[in-house]
Each structure stands twice: as C-alpha cells, then as structure tokens.
Amino acid sequence: MGRKLERNSGLVSILASVFVFLAVLRVTNASASHEEEADRISALPGQPKVAFHQFSGYVTVSEAAGRALFYWLTEAVQPSSKPLVVWLNGGPGCSSVAYGASEEIGPFRINKEASGLYLNKYSWNKFANLLFLETPAGVGFSYSNTSSDLLDTGDRRTAKDSLEFLVRWMDRFPRYKNHRIYLTGESYAGHYVPQLAREIVHYNTKTKNKINLKGFMVGNAVTDNHYDNLGTVNYWWSHAMISDKTYHQLMNTCDFRRQKESNQCESVYYYAMDQEFGSIDQYNIYAPPCNKSDATTGPTRRNMHLPHRPHSIFKKLRGYDPCTEQYAEIYYNRPDVQKALHANGTGRIPYKWTACSETLNRHWNDTANSILPIYRELIASGLRIWVGDVDSVVPVTATRFSLAQLKLDTTLPWYPWYVDKQVGGWSEVYKGLTFATVRGAGHEVPLFKPKAALQLLRSFIRGEPLPKS
Ligand SMILES: *[C@@H]1O[C@H](CO)[C@@H](O)[C@H](O)[C@H]1NC(C)=O
Ligand SMILES: *[C@@H]1O[C@H](CO)[C@@H](O)[C@H](O)[C@H]1NC(C)=O
Ligand SMILES: *[C@@H]1O[C@H](CO)[C@@H](O)[C@H](O)[C@H]1NC(C)=O
Ligand SMILES: *[C@@H]1O[C@H](CO)[C@@H](O)[C@H](O)[C@H]1NC(C)=O
C-alpha cells in the first residue's frame, strides 16, 4: 500500500540498521560494563519483586561548572531485544522521575503512605527500556555546583547538556549503543524533545560514534506560541469555559506571538480564570478537582507557568491528583530511597527534591517561539505527535493549529483508532508525521488513559498506524 511505503520512506535508515543491531547484539549482550554495575539498583525501599533490572546515577555534563544530570533506567525484561525510550517531562523545571516514572509510563507507582511502591500494569517497559532523565541541572536530583546555573538556564543549555548526557551515558552503557533510540515527552518537553533530536542529528554528522536515533513522540506539546495560544483560547471558547465577550476580548487585545503579553491582555486572562473558569482542573477539565486540604503547597506543575502564558494562571488551580505529587515528594526525599537510587550522594544538594523547580521555571533564560522549523528539518525522522483531548492547557486545538502550518501531505486520512474495541481516539498520518488524539485523556495521557497510551507506544515503535479496529 502506498501509505506504508510513504511512511517507511522516512525510515529508510532505520530498516537498514536493524541488521547491524542484530549482529552486534550477540557480542555485547552478556557483558555489562564495570561502570554500569556501580549504578545498579538492587531494590528500592518497599518495592515489589520484579523480573527486570534498574540502574540510576549521575552523568557529569560539564566538569567546569560541575553540572551533573540524574537518570533512572528501568529496563524491559529482555532488554537486548527492545529499543531505548528516553522520557522527558516539561515545566520547564519538572522532573521525569516525579511524573513520567512515578505516575505515567514507569513500572512503579508510589502508595498513599509513601511507604512503598506498587506495579503499573501498563508500564511502557513491556515494550521498551525506559530512560528517565531529569534535565536540566536543577531539576529533581540533577544539580550544578555553580549555583548561578539555576538562574540562566533555558532551551539552549538544556539541549546541549542533554546531548552531552546521552553521549556519555552510552559510554557507560555500551551495550545500548546499537539499540534503536526514541525520544518521548510531553508538555514543555515539546521543546526539549525536538531540540535534543536536532542536536543529535547534528552531532551524528560530525562523529563516527553515532547515536542511533529513530524518531520522537511528544504529547500535548508546547509547539508554537502564536498557534498554541490561539488554539488554547479557541478550546476554552468551544468547551464553554469562557464567554463570547471574553473570547473576543482575548482575540482583540492579545498578541499571541509575544513572550510577554500586555497588561490589558493579561487582565482579560485573569478575568477568564478568576470569574469564568471556576474551580476546575485545567489539565483535565472533566475531572473532579482535589480538595484544598489535600493539595500540596510546594511548587508543582499546577502552579508553574508555561513561558508564553501570564505568570499566575495556574496558581489558584488544583490538580487532578496533586496528592500523587505529594507522595513522590515524601518518597524521593527519604534518605533510604536516595541511597538506593545513588542520588544526592554526600547530601550535597542544598535544597529538597521537588517535583518541579520553581527557581528554574521563574528564571528560564531562553525559549524558542516556535518549534515548527525543527519539525520541518526533522520530519524524516519518524516523528509522531500524540495529544489528549480534554486538556485545556496545551489542548488539541493548539496542536492542530500549529501542525496545520506544516502543510504536510496526508498519507492516511483521518480515522478513529481502537483499543479494546472502543474508539481510543482519532489519528491522521502525514508524510513523516503521525497525529493521534487520545479520547478523554487529560494533559498527562498515560496517567488518564494508560492502556491507550501503551498502544500508542507499541504502534509507534513498530512504525505502524494505530489499529483500525
Ligand atoms: C560538585 O562538588 C562536589 C564537592 O566538591 C564534588 O564532589 C562533585 O564531584 C562536584 N560535581 C561535579 C559534577 O563536578
Ligand atoms: C473532599 O473532602 C470531603 C470531606 O473530607 C470528602 O467527603 C470528599 O469526598 C472529598 N472530595 C474529593 C474529591 O476527594
Ligand atoms: C540532599 O541531602 C541533604 C542532606 O541529607 C538534604 O538536606 C537535601 O534535602 C537533599 N536534597 C535533595 C535534592 O534530595
Ligand atoms: C540566554 O539567552 C540569550 C538570548 O536568547 C542567549 O544568547 C544566551 O546564550 C543564553 N544563556 C545561556 C546560559 O544559555
């Protein structure tokens, strides 16, 4: 079928290297490097017995500044036959250990008492080895000995440090060098993931020691200031969250291309939030908000802002389950947990582990206005976009407005895709890019729709369209 060929044409390098991959496996399979052994996790406190292996620790990305990034690898049961999936959360400033690993795609969930872990039935490590990276320095356990680094990091340094991390991590885990690698993430990682992919592609042109990147997948991704904001305001209006009057005022007073909106525009935003939204969860507008008393008061993504939105938009809102973040903040601050994870070695990090760093978020130095030019550049790398459709923070309309700018040819027209004989969402395949929604999912797709999200991963790494029945 034409569409199959079309899709594969962007993946030619992938098919060619599969053979290399198989041949090398036999040699490297059994040998674990000495260095990686030091990072092996024997067991986390309160962890159920599992059949897969885990590693975690630090990789220095700048000797001069003393910056080191923290990672946590949860392998598949048969790691050698599965690809490596790198997962990044957004914020900016939020931790992949807090969100991706502990409430979305990772194998463990933290119990209410933060006394232990239980298994996630739909963990992505069924199909892939999962590498959770806390980036940039200042996020979670990742740190810098140069404290000013927390005040001037932005998109640029995040991309460069993350590349440096991957290159050095591969030296520590040489058995992964020939694995297929996919980058995934959500929200503000809509910047990190394509930017890191571009760094890798450029790096690969200059080295023999290539990183075997095969594609990337982003969910509810911050993509383009103008079209994201336009799409968001339209989502609010079309989901009856704001009045016609507020909608028109936003459209007339805001210049969605700007990083910093005018006071007039911001005051319309505040009116919408304070007077019209009500106490809903913007990250999943149909979910019941959590009780105030249960909610955490520390910095979480709930009270963080995306750089192109007015600051305090998220301040007054309560999350779907802020309590989940609270369990994480108790669990990962336990000294026995940190010891088991090889994190915060000599207690040198002078502040607590938090799900999101408000310091980084507030001082974010540079942010791209649009990621679309990177999409254009990398469209051949097997990109797939995934979007949950009841999120009002980075909603499906934002992604559709942004992607429409790419003017891609359709290879598989719009269709409903299925999981468990139910419509899981809708998908359309373009030349070099797949768009898919997850019906009824909030901002963190794998949290709200874990089974559908696992199907996305499976189709994505197989390079197949989502199932039609
Ligand atoms: C940061 O400083 C501590 C204490 O001097 C040192 O042990 C550690 O190796 C430094 N970290 C990096 C990444 O250089
Ligand atoms: C909020 O707290 C009240 C009183 O403790 C309880 O009855 C109710 O179920 C709680 N609501 C939610 C959404 O947890
Ligand atoms: C690192 O350890 C010190 C000493 O135990 C503790 O005070 C600090 O909160 C920890 N920081 C992080 C990020 O875990
Ligand atoms: C901060 O942003 C400016 C302007 O975008 C850029 O030139 C500079 O390199 C950035 N600083 C760092 C430390 O990345």
UniProtKB/TrEMBL annotation:
One of its GO terms (biological process) is proteolysis. Pfam families: Peptidase_S10. Its EC number is 3.4.16.-. It is found in: Secreted. GO terms for molecular function: serine-type carboxypeptidase activity. Keywords: Carboxypeptidase, Disulfide bond, Glycoprotein, Hydrolase, Protease, Secreted, Signal. This is Carboxypeptidase. It comes from Dorcoceras hygrometricum.
